[in-house]
Design a protein that fits this description.
Layout (H helix, E strand, L loop, with lengths): L3 H19 L4 H8 L3 H9 L6 H10 L5 H10 L21 H12 L2 E6 L10 H11 L5 H14 L10 E7 H5 L5 H15 L4 E6 L13 E5 L8 E5 L4 E4 L2 H17 L3 H14 L1
Parallel strand pairs: 1-2, 2-3
Antiparallel strand pairs: 1-4, 4-5, 5-6
Helix pairs in contact: 1-3, 2-3, 4-5, 7-8, 10-12
Length: 286
């Protein structure tokens, strides 16, 4: 387990090392091409030091990497938002968001797919403004109103990934408790359930409900998120949220375990079609 920034450095370094090897270069030869000392290339590849987006760009140019999607992803891991203009909104919040949350948003904005198990609340990408406000207020007691406004703005801005080209592919398994827990009052919850019905009809969104009747399941250990990247599976990561921090799991055995757990949850959950009916029925009774 590692915290997000360490995961990003390690993954970025491993990918840059693989690209250098594919280009047939030693670390010393790569360093000479970009005018650095060999030790800098080594530190970047082992993830022992941070790396600037400009440095990543120099290495990618030296390795003749033309894949725009891969370049964009690696630049994002280095902290760049300048690749395609879709995520420039994040600049306005760089100084106010906790590092762990910033790192999560960065991964979310660059991932090709996201699989999530939610056991308590609606996924952030599908929350209405009123629901997001109620959840944030409950999660952080005593939050000043202006700070609350900022966090809600960020949560809503994050939802742009579902409207991007191409959009993030979201697969979510929701425990029935998510639908039954009355967050923000009856009116807020009714509108949130209607929003879920709308989202379930989007081609890039797959929603499944895990009903109480399913009994105990592997998801009782808690919610999780799996981010997958189109360019390379080596950058895939599992995120576990805790009260004061997030943990990132990157080992292949961890990824395999959580992927198998998610697949099992999808089997035990209602089908997307039945889930849509279930959510709609719950909304009608809300």
């Amino acid at each position: 387990m590692r915290h997000g920034p360490a995961v990003r450095r390690r993954k970025l370094g491993a990918e840059l090392r693989a690209l250098r090897t594919s280009a047939g270069l030693t670390s010393g030869e790569a360093a000479r091409l970009v005018g650095w000392h060999q030790s800098k290339v080594s530190r970047i590849e082992t993830g022992t030091s941070g790396v600037k987006p400009a440095d990543v760009r120099s290495l990618l140019d030296a390795y003749d990497v033309a894949d725009s999607q891969l370049r964009e992803l690696l630049m994002a891991l280095a902290g760049s938002d300048d690749s395609d203009g879709r995520h420039h909104w994040r600049h306005a919040y760089r100084g106010v968001l906790p590092p762990a949350y910033w790192d999560f948003i960065s991964l979310e904005s660059q991932a090709g797919a996201m699989r999530t198990l939610e056991t308590t609340v609606v996924p952030g990408l599908l929350q209405t403004p009123e629901y997001a406000r109620a959840v944030t207020r409950a999660a952080v007691e005593g939050l000043p109103e202006d700070r609350l406004d900022t966090l809600v703005e960020v949560r809503l801005a994050r939802q742009d990934v579902l409207r991007a080209d191409p959009p993030l592919r979201l697969s979510a398994v929701l425990d029935e408790a998510v639908l039954r827990r009355e967050v923000g009052g009856p009116g807020v919850m009714a509108r949130q359930l209607e929003r879920l019905v709308e989202a379930a009809r989007l081609p890039q969104v797959r929603l499944q409900v895990l009903p109480f009747a399913a009994g105990a399941h592997i998801g009782v250990t808690g919610p999780f998120v799996i981010f997958s990247f189109s360019s390379t599976s080596d950058l895939d990561v599992v995120v576990l949220d805790h009260l004061t921090s997030s943990l990132y799991l990157e080992r292949k055995e961890d990824l395999r375990a959580y992927t198998e757990a998610f697949n099992a949850l999808q089997i035990h959950a209602l089908s997307p079609e039945d889930s849509l009916d279930f959510i709609a029925g719950t909304a009608a009774g809300a």
